[in-house]
Amino acid sequence: xxxxxxxxxxxxxxxxxxxxxxxxxxxxxxxxxxxxxxxxxxxxxxxxxxxxxxxxxxxxxxxxxxxxxxxxxxxxxxxxxxxxxxxxxxxxxxxxxxxxxxxxxxxxxxxxxxxxxxxxxxxxxxxxxxxxxxxxxxxxxxxxxxxxxxxxxxxxxxxxxxxxxxxxxxxxxxxxxxxxxxxxxxxxxxxxxxxxxxxxxxxxxxxxxxxxxxxxxxxxxxxxxxxxxxxxxxxxxxxxxxxxxxxxxxxxxxxxxxxxxxxxxxxxxxxxxxxxxxxxxxxxxxxxxxxxx
Length: 293
Fold this sequence. Notes:
9-stranded mixed sheet; 3-stranded antiparallel sheet
């Protein structure tokens, strides 16, 4: 069965458009054709994805950068200037200082990642969250029923980072990091075609979990989810980060960041909740308000 391209709302302009899917033909073959599904098994393991991703750390990979910029209309003026010696150096590019400021209000939560957002006001540990048809529950996502109970009935925000998006992620608030863990898994694609065709992607993929006692929003859990062709998820080691501080970054491939909160601690913005109910993701820029208390 052929899956439809997803609809994305640009939160700033209000326009809704179909997503341009990177390598759409290849993705459809891998996920919608029987032969492609067999071949895909070679890449979902960490070794296969690591070997594939290694090519983007070579000097020769830099020739891909101009075509990638042109295809997706990337505003290079918003980022720190190159030259970029490898494609991965470009992929993990940083914004220039001041381009994406965080909201100064302490009661406002700013976006810690730039990408396509969905949001829910309350979720239980075994409640199924319809993330593009995925069977996503807190217990399965965190791989820890006791930890899942800490966030039962609380809000959840999912940010899907497309390959052409900014691939660094940040703390939404200051506060002490209490726990960090890595959950081993496979590396399925988080491409929208894959999310509709292959069940359980978010709870099968490798993911990193960070629990923070934030200053303004209570206990938070950040979950960074790896994906097919993602070379690495890089985490910075800081036990007392400040609001907006860079937390880490992904290397090549589309990826996902999930943010969980405690019941009643904060509320996702109404427009994100409303468009999620319509099944349409909202493109949100780093630092824009996404929730409040």
